[in-house]
Amino acid sequence: MHAVAIVCLISSAVLATAGMARAEPVVLALGDSLTAGYGLPAGAAYPEVLERLLDEAGVAAKVVNAGVSGDTAADGLARLDWALGAGPELAIVALGANDGLRGMPVADMEKSLTAILERLKERGVKVILAGMVAPGNWGGGYAREFAAVFPRLADTYGATLYPFLLEGVAGDRSLNLPDGVHPNAAGARRIAEGLLPVVMGALR
Q1: How is the chain split into domains, by residue range?
Q2: Given CB 3.0 to 4.6 Å as the disulfide criterion, which of 9, 21, 118, 134 pairs with 146?
Q3: Catalytic residues
Q4: Per-residue b/e over 3-42, b at no fewer than 16 CB within 10 Å?
Q5: Rounded-to-integer distance, Cα 65 and Cα 31, Å
Q6: pLDDT tens digit string along 169-180?
Q7: Residue 64 contacts residue 29 (beta carbons within 8 Å)
Q8: Torsion over CA: 201, 163, 47, 85 (sign)
Q9: How far apart are CA 56 and CA 182, in angstroms?
Q10: What 3-state class would DSSP assign to 124?
Q11: Facing residues of 90 across strands?
Q12: What is the architecture of the domain spanning 25-203?
Protein backbone atom coordinates (compact mmCIF):
# COMPACT_ATOMS: atom_id res chain seq x y z
CA MET A 1 0.00 0.00 0.00
CA HIS A 2 1.23 3.49 -0.84
CA ALA A 3 2.75 5.37 2.11
CA VAL A 4 0.36 8.31 1.71
CA ALA A 5 -2.62 5.97 1.83
CA ILE A 6 -1.28 4.34 4.98
CA VAL A 7 -0.87 7.74 6.64
CA CYS A 8 -4.43 8.67 5.68
CA LEU A 9 -5.78 5.44 7.13
CA ILE A 10 -3.89 5.95 10.38
CA SER A 11 -5.08 9.54 10.60
CA SER A 12 -8.68 8.44 10.05
CA ALA A 13 -8.36 5.81 12.77
CA VAL A 14 -6.95 8.35 15.21
CA LEU A 15 -9.75 10.80 14.46
CA ALA A 16 -12.36 8.06 14.84
CA THR A 17 -10.90 7.07 18.19
CA ALA A 18 -10.87 10.67 19.33
CA GLY A 19 -14.48 11.00 18.23
CA MET A 20 -15.39 7.97 20.31
CA ALA A 21 -13.63 9.48 23.32
CA ARG A 22 -15.57 12.71 22.90
CA ALA A 23 -18.84 10.78 22.76
CA GLU A 24 -18.90 10.54 26.57
CA PRO A 25 -21.53 13.11 27.66
CA VAL A 26 -20.45 16.00 29.85
CA VAL A 27 -22.61 17.18 32.73
CA LEU A 28 -21.87 20.72 33.92
CA ALA A 29 -22.61 21.40 37.60
CA LEU A 30 -22.91 25.19 37.81
CA GLY A 31 -23.30 26.45 41.35
CA ASP A 32 -21.87 27.95 44.49
CA SER A 33 -20.22 26.47 47.60
CA LEU A 34 -22.87 23.75 47.79
CA THR A 35 -21.59 22.51 44.45
CA ALA A 36 -17.91 23.36 44.96
CA GLY A 37 -17.81 21.24 48.10
CA TYR A 38 -16.90 23.87 50.65
CA GLY A 39 -15.05 22.32 53.61
CA LEU A 40 -14.88 18.87 52.01
CA PRO A 41 -11.87 16.78 51.03
CA ALA A 42 -11.03 16.37 47.35
CA GLY A 43 -13.51 14.17 45.52
CA ALA A 44 -16.27 14.47 48.13
CA ALA A 45 -18.35 17.25 46.56
CA TYR A 46 -21.63 16.13 45.05
CA PRO A 47 -20.56 16.46 41.36
CA GLU A 48 -17.62 14.09 41.88
CA VAL A 49 -19.80 11.65 43.82
CA LEU A 50 -22.45 11.88 41.12
CA GLU A 51 -19.93 10.91 38.46
CA ARG A 52 -18.96 7.82 40.46
CA LEU A 53 -22.61 6.88 40.99
CA LEU A 54 -23.29 7.23 37.27
CA ASP A 55 -20.34 4.97 36.54
CA GLU A 56 -21.63 2.38 39.03
CA ALA A 57 -25.00 2.54 37.26
CA GLY A 58 -23.34 1.85 33.92
CA VAL A 59 -23.62 5.40 32.61
CA ALA A 60 -20.35 6.79 31.27
CA ALA A 61 -20.38 10.55 31.81
CA LYS A 62 -18.01 13.29 32.91
CA VAL A 63 -19.39 15.59 35.60
CA VAL A 64 -17.57 18.92 35.64
CA ASN A 65 -17.62 20.75 38.96
CA ALA A 66 -18.17 24.43 38.09
CA GLY A 67 -19.07 25.49 41.62
CA VAL A 68 -17.50 28.61 43.13
CA SER A 69 -18.00 29.43 46.80
CA GLY A 70 -19.84 32.68 47.39
CA ASP A 71 -21.32 32.93 43.92
CA THR A 72 -24.68 34.56 43.40
CA ALA A 73 -26.81 33.91 40.33
CA ALA A 74 -25.22 36.97 38.70
CA ASP A 75 -21.74 35.59 39.38
CA GLY A 76 -22.72 32.28 37.79
CA LEU A 77 -23.95 34.13 34.72
CA ALA A 78 -20.70 36.11 34.48
CA ARG A 79 -18.62 32.94 34.14
CA LEU A 80 -21.10 30.85 32.16
CA ASP A 81 -19.35 31.21 28.81
CA TRP A 82 -16.11 29.99 30.36
CA ALA A 83 -17.89 27.03 31.96
CA LEU A 84 -19.50 26.12 28.64
CA GLY A 85 -16.03 25.47 27.26
CA ALA A 86 -16.43 21.97 28.70
CA GLY A 87 -18.99 21.26 25.98
CA PRO A 88 -21.81 19.98 28.21
CA GLU A 89 -24.82 18.04 27.02
CA LEU A 90 -26.55 18.66 30.34
CA ALA A 91 -26.22 21.38 32.98
CA ILE A 92 -27.29 21.27 36.60
CA VAL A 93 -27.93 24.89 37.56
CA ALA A 94 -27.82 25.25 41.34
CA LEU A 95 -27.60 28.96 42.07
CA GLY A 96 -29.53 31.38 44.24
CA ALA A 97 -28.61 30.26 47.74
CA ASN A 98 -26.30 33.24 48.29
CA ASP A 99 -28.87 35.61 46.82
CA GLY A 100 -31.32 34.38 49.45
CA LEU A 101 -28.82 34.45 52.31
CA ARG A 102 -28.02 38.08 51.53
CA GLY A 103 -31.62 39.09 50.99
CA MET A 104 -30.85 40.31 47.48
CA PRO A 105 -33.75 41.40 45.25
CA VAL A 106 -35.56 38.35 43.93
CA ALA A 107 -36.11 40.09 40.59
CA ASP A 108 -32.34 40.42 40.14
CA MET A 109 -31.79 36.72 40.84
CA GLU A 110 -34.54 35.79 38.41
CA LYS A 111 -33.06 38.02 35.72
CA SER A 112 -29.67 36.31 36.03
CA LEU A 113 -31.15 32.81 36.09
CA THR A 114 -33.25 33.70 33.05
CA ALA A 115 -30.15 34.77 31.14
CA ILE A 116 -28.39 31.54 32.12
CA LEU A 117 -31.28 29.38 30.94
CA GLU A 118 -31.62 31.34 27.70
CA ARG A 119 -27.93 30.91 26.92
CA LEU A 120 -28.03 27.20 27.69
CA LYS A 121 -31.09 26.79 25.50
CA GLU A 122 -29.34 28.59 22.65
CA ARG A 123 -26.44 26.15 22.98
CA GLY A 124 -28.79 23.15 22.97
CA VAL A 125 -27.82 22.16 26.52
CA LYS A 126 -30.43 20.30 28.57
CA VAL A 127 -31.00 21.77 32.02
CA ILE A 128 -31.84 20.52 35.49
CA LEU A 129 -32.75 23.58 37.55
CA ALA A 130 -32.26 23.03 41.27
CA GLY A 131 -34.54 25.02 43.51
CA MET A 132 -33.37 26.83 46.62
CA VAL A 133 -35.07 28.05 49.78
CA ALA A 134 -34.55 31.50 51.27
CA PRO A 135 -33.94 31.78 55.03
CA GLY A 136 -36.94 32.83 57.07
CA ASN A 137 -35.32 35.93 58.53
CA TRP A 138 -36.28 37.96 55.44
CA GLY A 139 -39.97 37.30 55.99
CA GLY A 140 -42.58 34.99 54.55
CA GLY A 141 -43.29 37.21 51.57
CA TYR A 142 -39.69 37.19 50.44
CA ALA A 143 -39.43 33.43 50.94
CA ARG A 144 -42.53 32.76 48.84
CA GLU A 145 -41.43 35.10 46.08
CA PHE A 146 -37.99 33.50 46.08
CA ALA A 147 -39.28 29.92 45.95
CA ALA A 148 -41.68 30.69 43.09
CA VAL A 149 -38.86 31.66 40.73
CA PHE A 150 -37.53 28.15 40.15
CA PRO A 151 -40.69 26.32 39.02
CA ARG A 152 -41.69 29.34 36.93
CA LEU A 153 -38.38 29.40 35.05
CA ALA A 154 -38.28 25.63 34.66
CA ASP A 155 -41.73 25.75 33.08
CA THR A 156 -40.85 28.67 30.82
CA TYR A 157 -37.61 27.17 29.50
CA GLY A 158 -38.52 23.49 29.49
CA ALA A 159 -35.96 22.65 32.17
CA THR A 160 -36.31 19.73 34.53
CA LEU A 161 -37.07 21.08 37.99
CA TYR A 162 -35.31 19.50 40.96
CA PRO A 163 -37.38 21.24 43.65
CA PHE A 164 -34.71 21.63 46.36
CA LEU A 165 -31.00 20.86 46.02
CA LEU A 166 -30.68 20.17 49.76
CA GLU A 167 -33.69 17.88 49.99
CA GLY A 168 -33.13 15.47 52.86
CA VAL A 169 -29.97 17.31 53.89
CA ALA A 170 -30.98 20.75 55.12
CA GLY A 171 -31.63 20.80 58.84
CA ASP A 172 -30.06 17.39 59.47
CA ARG A 173 -27.04 17.94 61.71
CA SER A 174 -25.60 14.54 60.81
CA LEU A 175 -25.40 15.57 57.14
CA ASN A 176 -23.95 19.05 57.57
CA LEU A 177 -20.73 20.67 58.65
CA PRO A 178 -20.68 22.43 62.06
CA ASP A 179 -21.80 25.67 60.37
CA GLY A 180 -25.18 24.04 59.75
CA VAL A 181 -25.21 25.39 56.20
CA HIS A 182 -22.85 23.32 54.09
CA PRO A 183 -23.23 19.56 53.57
CA ASN A 184 -20.56 17.25 54.92
CA ALA A 185 -19.36 14.29 52.84
CA ALA A 186 -22.43 12.23 53.76
CA GLY A 187 -24.68 15.16 52.89
CA ALA A 188 -22.98 15.65 49.53
CA ARG A 189 -23.52 11.97 48.79
CA ARG A 190 -27.21 12.34 49.67
CA ILE A 191 -27.47 15.21 47.17
CA ALA A 192 -25.78 13.11 44.49
CA GLU A 193 -28.07 10.16 45.20
CA GLY A 194 -31.11 12.39 44.88
CA LEU A 195 -29.93 13.83 41.58
CA LEU A 196 -28.82 10.50 40.12
CA PRO A 197 -32.13 9.29 38.65
CA VAL A 198 -32.93 12.77 37.36
CA VAL A 199 -29.58 13.04 35.61
CA MET A 200 -29.87 9.54 34.19
CA GLY A 201 -33.29 10.40 32.80
CA ALA A 202 -31.99 13.61 31.23
CA LEU A 203 -29.06 11.82 29.57
CA ARG A 204 -31.26 9.26 27.83
Answers
A1: 25-203
A2: 134
A3: 33, 179, 182
A4: eeeeeeeeeeeeeeeeeeeeeebbbbbbbbbbbbbbbbee
A5: 8
A6: 999 999 999 999
A7: yes
A8: positive
A9: 26
A10: coil
A11: 27, 126
A12: 3-Layer(aba) Sandwich (3.40)
